[in-house]
Amino acid sequence: MPQPDMNQIMAQAQQMQQKLQEAQAEIAASTVEGTSGNGLVKVTLAGSGAVQDVTVDPSVVDPEDVETLQDLIIGAFQAANDNLQQLSQEKMGPLTQGLGGLGF
């Protein structure tokens, strides 16, 4: 079995690293939303995962039922987080799968 060309492997690794950095920058510049209660609560996350905005429809604000509002906020945050993970997988997945071809 012939030995792999180390220069070629290094060049591929550098290209992969550049593509990963570009994908990470694209994710960081993105925003995702998650909603719950048929859109009554919306959470917007930055690509970094930081919460940028929370919007609550006034119709779900009931001082007698704070628990429901709390559940809706948690649901919207979880949906936004799921969307962020999906975005990351879409951008990074093909690149990280390609690392196997470099012998890693």
UniProtKB/TrEMBL annotation:
Residues 6-33 form a coiled coil. InterPro entries: YbaB-like_sf, YbaB/EbfC. One of its GO terms (cellular component) is bacterial nucleoid. Transmembrane segments: none annotated. It comes from the Bacteria. This is Nucleoid-associated protein DIW82_12940. Its main location: cytoplasm. It comes from Corynebacterium nuruki. The keyword DNA-binding applies. NCBIfam families: DNA_YbaB_EbfC. It is found in: Cytoplasm, Nucleoid.
